[in-house]
Amino acid sequence: MKKVQLNPVGWMSQLSQIEVAQLQDTTNSALYGMFRNCCLAVLNSGVDEDDYEVLFAPYENFDIKLVRRERGVKIELVNPPEVAFVDGTLVTGVHEHIFAVLRDLLFMGNKYAFTHKSAPVDSVSITDMVFDMLRHAKALEGNDSLNTVVCWGGHSINLTEYKYTKEVGYQLGLREMNICTGCGPGAMKGPMKGATIGHAKQRYKAGRYIGISEPSIIAAEPPNAIVNELVIMPDIEKRLEAFVRLAHGIVIFPGGVGTAEELLYLLGILMNERNAQQPFPVILTGPAGSETYFEAIDEFIGATIGKEAQSKYQIIVDDPEEVARVMRTGLGRVKKYREAMGDAYSFNWSLKIEEDFQRPFIPTHQTMSGLALHHNQDNASLAIALRQAFSGIVAGNVKAEGIQHIKQHGPFKLTGDAKLMERVDTLLESFVSQQRMKLPGSAYTPCYTIEK
User: Chain-centre distance of CA 443, in angstroms?
Assistant: First the structure.
């Protein structure tokens, strides 16, 4: 039996005795099982696998314990994966990520009662919690330079697309922009990798590679090794809010249903009339050959939530330098707006996010079949319903609870207007045919059926 003890790093190295006691109290709670699984995912950083059962199967004997010390708390790993070690020593970045998991899931999870009904539910309290978690993670420190670009895109992309994400990251890095992604592989890793080279060439010492994840998806998308600031939000809705509040601009690469979910979430917010004057640069980009992908996405957006939504983004194909230049110009407008509004540079308080975008959507057969997938509503409400539908498909594809739900009860059923469901079906089929639902080489069985 292999045991490894880790000294605390970062903010977790300075805890009071009461805080240590509170942490130890969580070892018998539902949070602790979540904490164990997230740590195991972090320890498998770099492993190309998005099936949690395959990832976790070899490590049934893995355990993690909290060891109380006068100065705080240590972590003891029992039978950890060898892939996390170099010549017997745990990789430094993985060490840091483990304590980020401890901070976000146990300390903050206990503070905000993630697994209890007393967790924040109203809009103001949810935003305050997102702010507090980012503040504790020190993600807001250094974010007042107005240079944080959030990059979204698929974990399952081809080599040409991956190289393109690196080139875009490189051009952003040359212009001293920092990168924030969902922290996994593919389009979440490429921009960070490219930016490190751009930063190195400019001797830019403040390079930030922020990864924001959530417990139910981290096993499918373990943090890549370049992430130097890891934040784990309690659910997908808090994760998405953290992205848009932290971001000064967003670049979206080709992806699958998860990327479509993120885009719908963002557009639904930007369509709110209270956000009409707020500059928020959004660029959809990919390499030559991705034109048909973006045409399909653009057509879907126009046909479902309208031309106003289409006006909120710009499509640039096969031109990384232009992406970086347009983003730099957009950040200038963001700076002027924040100054005029008196809003913080580090956290976008003035962005209005309705509660329907903040409340956790739990995908079950009942909630999925009950989604209002029809045009007899305003476009923002339809964006919410479509976002939830795609979120449920993500859960059925890669999240442990979603996969188990599908195994027990069969595929989710999506019903709605015939024309709308035909468009949804066409878009999803394109993701399947392009192998954007699972990693290349993995057989994909749809976790949904479309009923018109």
Answer: 24
8 A C-beta contact, residue 303 and residue 423: yes
Contact 231, 208 (CB under 8 A): no
Beta-carbon count within 10 A of 340 CB: 9
Quick check: 50 and 438 in contact, CB under 8 A?
Answer: yes
pLDDT of residue 108 exceeding 70, the answer is yes
Q: What is the mean pLDDT of the chain?
A: 89
In contact, 285 and 316? CB cutoff 8 Å = yes
What is the dihedral sign for C-alpha 309, 310, 312, 317? positive
CB 99 within 8 A of CB 10: yes
Which amino acid does the sequence have at 402?
G
**Two tokens, residue 197:** 């080279």
CA distances from residue 199 to 178, 189, 286, 443 in whole angstroms, order as listed: 9, 16, 22, 39
Listed in sequence order, the residues at least 6 apart from 299 whose beta carbon sits closer than 8 Å to its beta carbon are none
pLDDT digits 0-9 by tens, 263-303: 999 999 999 999 999 999 999 999 999 998 999 999 999 99
* Burial track 407-441 (b if 16+ CB lie within 10 A, e otherwise): eeeebbebebeeebbebbbebbebbeebbbbbbee
With contact defined as beta carbons under 8 Å apart, do 216 and 258 qualify? no
Domains and CATH numbers, the chain: 3-118 (3.30.1850.10), 133-341 (3.40.50.450), 359-451 (no CATH)
Which pTM does this prediction carry? Answer: 0.92
Question: Who's near 110: CB < 8 A, 6+ residues apart?
Answer: 22, 23, 25, 26, 29, 31
Higher pLDDT, residue 34 or 356: 356
User: How far apart, in Å, are the Cα atoms of 208 and each of 64, 103, 136, 148, 326?
Assistant: 29, 19, 16, 8, 21
